[in-house]
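User: Thanks for the earlier help. One more: Competence protein ComGD. Can you show the sequence and predicted structure together?

Assistant: Of course, both are below.
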Amino acid sequence: MKAVRNHGFTLIEMLLVLAAITVLMAVSLPFLNSAAEQKTEWYIITQLRDDLLYAQQYAMTQQTPVAVTFAENHPEYRIVEMKEGKTILKRSISGKWKFQLTTLTMPLIFLENGNVNKAGSLLLKGRGKTYKIVFLLGKGRFYVQKA
């Protein structure tokens, strides 16, 4: 007569489940890495946009010009109140990102009414991706687009 087991799993059953989980993890790992890179990229672009809007709002609320300076070929920018020369924000971007000036000359100044002092654009390059940040005259508008 054969003995009936009512508890536990055999070693073979556990190894089969472990092998299936390992295969699923190996298949999904490249997708997770890609998703993490996309999330980081999205965070950098969103943070830059928010910081520029902050500089514009600061200029309007404090009624003082605010200068934004992008370090060319380095991943950092600085926001400075022009009357007192006080640094409001200095941000470094993680990773292998860098700014490249195209038609924009430094510094970019948000005037008391929120407008920029000059139009132009610059590039944010990194990891095979390029984003173009364009500053328009009038109303201090700017936008970020994938180049």
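User: Great, one quick takeaway?

Assistant: The domain at 11-146 is CATH 3.55.40.10 (minor pseudopilin epsh fold).
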